[in-house]
Fold this sequence. Notes:
Blueprint: E1 2-4, E2 11-13, E3 28-32, E4 41-45, E5 50-54, E6 60-65, E7 78-80, E8 89-94, E9 102-106, E10 112-117, E11 122-124, E12 128-129, E13 135-141, E14 153-157
Antiparallel strand pairs: 1-2, 3-4, 4-5, 5-6, 7-8, 8-9, 9-10, 11-13, 12-13, 13-14
Amino acid sequence: MLLILPSTAQLEIHEGFPVYAGYNLRVNLVAADLEGDGVLEIIAAPENRTVKVFSDTGALKWENVSGTSMHDYARTPVIRNFTGDSKLEVLTYGNPYYSDPTFYIWNPEGNKLVDMLVEKYLLISAPSVTLDGIILTGAAPGTYFDTIMNFSGLHAFDIAGNCPVVKTSWGGCQERSRR
């Protein structure tokens, strides 16, 4: 069994199950063949706002920071081909400084392709991605105390930041046609 350690997101190999970790684990994991070689990589988004990619043996391949606020607990990575180049990319998101919900897309080598602010002062939920590559996320006006004010809505955009579908009444993307 591979155990992901919090904060560092290091992998430890343990025999047997269960393994008592001694702490809360705030790490979301996804397994995907990022390199297209038939071997799954392990993609982790731990509580310290990094995204880390491990080989199937647990060796760290690359890591990058995807947020800066200590309030960015484990975000679930989304794996998909966003760029149309037949390679999978990693979508992560964070909410640095409580006010800048941002989506990041990383290529299989760990290079940041997209660093896209959704809108100031929003709290965002885990994204979903449609078959045609539109990123959907729930969003609500937020505060520095991580509380939701009034009402929530839906943001929809592609990796270029175009907002093809949704119109919001509180300053979000305005409805427009896709490019």
